[in-house]
Amino acid sequence: MASAAIQAYQAKDYKSELKPIWCPGCGDFGVVQAIYRALAAVGRPPHEIAFVSGIGCSSRIPGYTTAYGFNSVHGRALPIAQGIKLASPELLVLVAGGDGDGFSIGGGHVAHAVRRNVDLTYIVMDNQIYGLTKGQLSPTSPRGLRTASSAWGSLEDPVNPLLYVLGYGASFVAQGTPADMSGLAALIEEAIRFPGFAFVNVQSPCVTYGQEEQSLKAHKSAMRPLASLGHDPGDRLRAMALAAEYGKALYTGVFYRNPEPPPTYEAEAKARQQQARPLAPVRRDILEMFRAQ
Amino acid sequence: MSSDLIVGMAGAGGDGIVSAGEAMMTAAALEGYSALLTKSFGPQIRGGESSCRVRVATQPVLSAGGTLDIAVALNWDDFLKFGSELGVDGRTTVIYEAASGVAPGELPLAGVVPREAIPVEVARLAKETAGTDRAKNSVVLGLLAAWLGMPEAAFLAGIRKRFGKKGEEVLQGNLAAFDAGFRHAAERPLREPRRLATPGKAGPPKLVVDGNEMCAAAALFAGCEFFGGYPITPSSEIMQFFAREVWKHGGSMLQAEDEIAGIGAVVGASFAGKKAMTATSGPGMSLKTEMLGLATIAELPLVCVNVQRGGPSTGMPTKSEQSDLLQACFSAHGDVVRPVLAPISVADTFGITVEAFNVAEHYQTPVILLSDQEIGQRKETVDAIDTSAFPVLERQRPTGAELDGYERFRATDSGISPISHPGLPGGNYLASGIEHNELGSPTASGEVHARMNEKRLRKLEPLKRRRDLFLEEGDPKAALGVVAWGSVAGVAREAVRLARREGIDVKLLVPKLLFPVAEEVYAQFFKSVEAGLVVEQSHQGQLYRVLRMFAEVPRGVQPLARSGSVPILAATIVERLRGQVLALQSRLVPEGEPAG
Questions:
Q1: Distance between CA atoms of A146 and B545, rounded to whole angstroms?
Q2: How far apart are CA A115 and CA A119, in angstroms?
Q3: Residues in B touching A81 (Cβ below 8 Å)
Q4: Which H or E run contains B469?
Q5: CA atoms of B513 and B370, how far apart (whole Å)
Q6: Residue B7: helix, strand or coil by DSSP?
Q7: Residue A144 and residue A152: Cα distance in Å, rounded?
Q8: What residues of chain B lie within 8 A of the CB of A108, using their CB?
């Protein structure tokens, strides 16, 4: 990690002039701060960063940065981000959204983003509720939770984002909380630097519709850094065992980092382009391949 | 001597009927004929019945045509499954497998006494020469070459192209089988000959290509660097072409996990500054609709191809229909106009695809390219296309001065605002599906929303004056007018020529720009028109309804609208026109259907 003294960019260079619409005390304020810090540490100029999100409170986040932002449609940030990265592999591509965006309406895209291994950093701000639409059940809401759309309590078990993504075969899976800002910034920086698809689940409390035990204050005492448990991030099975405690224990840090990261889609695509380029027809003669002979 | 012949063949899967048709296309292309091949298959994934039609002519072929001149039945059960797709009448020469045991006077063709019926021991000839009855198709090619009087060498080239890859033994077997068929036919001339005239001038060999491959090749020509899509019949060949070719041009592609992700990646690639395309068919279009809305409000160029099939839902995936026009024009949420373009043939697919990219890039909008199964999957011989005659446009990028205090959605006279892309210093902005102001900042202001709606619609207005996206034929002052689009336009062109030959004064308008509706172009066309037809392959008459919404359609102009799968024939159009002439003469113009 570069020291602040030799950084070309400061955290403030990534902060835009837009004022967030978030409620005072929202966990997402901490997340965006952590992102500014991580980006400053990585040191890419804002115009070389594409920051894509879907729809939801947290998906407003690209607008609060000076990067090229794309606040797209609900659940589709990952496909859009993959298109950006494949079209321009030299860009740093960040993806962010909420638990509903990533594990409900957009849930079908996560497995494929993982297995395709496009070099993206995917940050989910997981608050176990739909905030923007004013307090309905989310895919990570615990069973029994009473919300605007579950007056009698939820009848469903929540998904486990950590276990899902590990199960899909991701090479980098981490969890953080804005209650530990510098820890979160370091995790996001590590995820950005990781060559390949990297997932950071952030427990980001909703102050308006969330549960009390999910407050930043509660996180401070509940969080258990994986490093302090002596967890080896190269141990995928142990990572899955720890991830299975999602909803019960608040582990923070890197669950899994593949010691031998597989090649990215765009790296393989580049190799294929180099292999195929000598076979390219002159563009004006492109139809010659159809000529009868 | 005929100048125009239609050959239809059917057999079981493995009989190589389609291979025979393709070899015949190669032969036609080498000899300077114009030809058109359509294929049709049973619903089985493998081994079901298969058929093809090849129309060969000395003049340009405009449609697949109607009743067969020559029918080849390797197996009567399979042949009959294709019904009117392989229509036989008293003018048809029928060649069939003698081993079927059917006597020439007792063909299973109800109500038809064909011009001539010739049993040939196709399977025996194949086995004797190639050692396998898999070479039946080459025997058939030999028979056709001899009886049609088409040059043997061209057929041999076609066979080499089809079978060369399968090894020397297979190739030699097929060449021997061809020879056996050729000698068999040469020794037994037809009672009623079917010689094909030779084309006037034999230029360089023509291209042989289907609409889907032409579309993909044109996209690469236009500078498309990214494709995202999902397999769906009948458009998959477009994605498959990209999978083979895009890497050569330094581009990339993605077979996405679903239709939404396919166009999503295309939206992303366009945001990143690259020309990008997706392709699908009806159900996939429904799934892509939300993303089209995003591309419209974020003002991102992209081309979305819909190779139409019978619908709704799974409908008839291997059959052609023009029933997605209303969807293309109107399925958007919000106040949106999305340009819709449609090619009328395989050859035309080149220019219209390049045009789709030009419109998308110039106006910063998604463009829907409405092809159909007929064009997408049929093969045509195509004369050399001078690609340099097709200009390629690029999106307007901000100048250095414009990057100083850059406004992504700056108010301009044209409504087109210079667009930056990630990587460009100073061009940073927020693209969004949420309404935004000139800077790209989200807004809830009704004034800004109205202003932006006006900008997004205003920028497309010049499209309506693109007369070059319309084809007009016939007498400009004619009282009879026909409008047709897509693959049916070829049938209508043929019909109008036939009608004019019999003295019917009729003209034709073919829109390749379907939406926005070019009101002025139609007004001028309809000025002289008292009666006529809007010909299309959709049950409701979707183009007719769109025209009734936006143009003054004379009351005497009626829809000639049919559900897909069964092709509309030129003869049907001519017959309707004859009726309209009679009605005009007695001033009994039937009234058009009420718009609904």
A1: 50
A2: 11
A3: 268
A4: none
A5: 10
A6: strand
A7: 8
A8: 257-258, 261
**How crowded is residue B313: how many other Cβ atoms within 10 Å of its Cβ?**
8
Identity of the amino acid at B186: A
**Lookup: tokens for A74:** 């609900």
Sequence-ordered list of residues with C-beta below 8 angstroms from that of A4, at least 6 positions apart, any chain? A10
- Please give the ipTM for the structure prediction: 0.97
Residue ranges of B 413-452 with Cβ closer than 8 A to chain A:
421-434, 441-442
Longest dimension (CA), chain A: 77
Q: What CA–CA distance (Å, rounded) separates B417 from B258?
A: 32
- CB-based contact, B390 to chain A, within 8 Å: no
Cβ within 8 Å of A, B 498-517: none
DSSP state of A105: I
Q: How long is chain A?
A: 293
Distance between B327 CA and the closest CA of chain A, angstroms: 21
- The alpha carbon dihedral of B405, B407, B412, B416 has a sign of positive
Q: Do A276 and B161 touch (CB under 8 A)?
A: no
Chain B CB contacts of A88 below 8 Å = 272-274, 421-423
* CB-CB neighbors (< 8 A) of A63 in chain B: 430, 432, 441-442
Q: In the numeric block, which tokens belong to residue A143?
A: 């069973």
Distance between CA atoms of residues A211 and A50, nearest Å: 33
Distance of residue B195 Cα from the nearest chain A Cα, in angstroms: 23
Taking the domain A6-262, which CATH number applies? Answer: 3.40.50.970
Sign of CA dihedral B5, B6, B11, B14: positive
CA-nearest residue to A113 within chain B is B257
A112:B208 CB<8 A: no
Within 8 A of A47 by CB-CB distance, chain B residues are 422-428
Count the neighbouring beta carbons within 10 Å of the beta carbon of residue A187.
26
B470 burial level (CB within 10 Å; 0-12, 13-18, 19+):
middle
Q: pTM of this prediction?
A: 0.96
Site from A22, A71, A74, A277 to mutate, B interface, most B CB atoms within 10 angstroms: A71
Digit-by-digit pLDDT tens for chain A (293 residues) are 445 456 799 999 999 999 999 999 999 999 999 999 999 999 999 999 999 999 999 999 999 999 999 999 999 999 999 999 999 999 999 999 999 999 999 999 999 999 999 999 999 999 999 999 999 999 999 999 999 999 999 999 999 999 999 999 999 999 999 999 999 999 999 999 999 999 999 999 999 999 877 899 999 999 999 999 999 999 999 999 999 999 999 999 999 999 999 999 999 999 999 999 999 999 999 999 999 98
Locate B157 and state its tokens.
Answer: 């080239």
- The full set of domain ranges for chain A reads 6-262
Starting at the edge strand found earlier in the chain, the sheet holding B430-432 runs: A223-225, A250-257, A172-176, A198-203, A121-126, A92-98, A49-53, A68-71, B430-432
**A28 touches A184 (CB < 8 A):** no
- Residues of chain B contacting residue A86, judged by C-beta atoms under 8 Å apart: 226, 252, 254, 265, 268-269
Cα–Cα distance, B445 to B179 (Å, whole number): 78
Query: Would the CB atoms of A81 and B423 count as touching at under 8 Å?
Result: no
* Of A69, A84, A273, Cβ closest to residue B430: A69
CB-based contacts of B145, cutoff 8 Å, min separation 6 = B27, B151, B152, B155, B178, B181, B182, B185
**In the A/B pair of chains, how many CB contacts fall below 8 A?**
214
Q: Which domains does chain B have, with CATH numbers?
A: 4-187 (3.40.920.10), 212-389 (3.40.50.970), 466-585 (3.40.50.920)
Please state, in angstroms and rounded to a whole number, the distance separating the CA atoms of residues B452 and B448.
6
Residue A286, SS3? helix
Which long-range CB contacts under 8 A does B400-405 form with residues at least 24 apart?
A: B403/B427
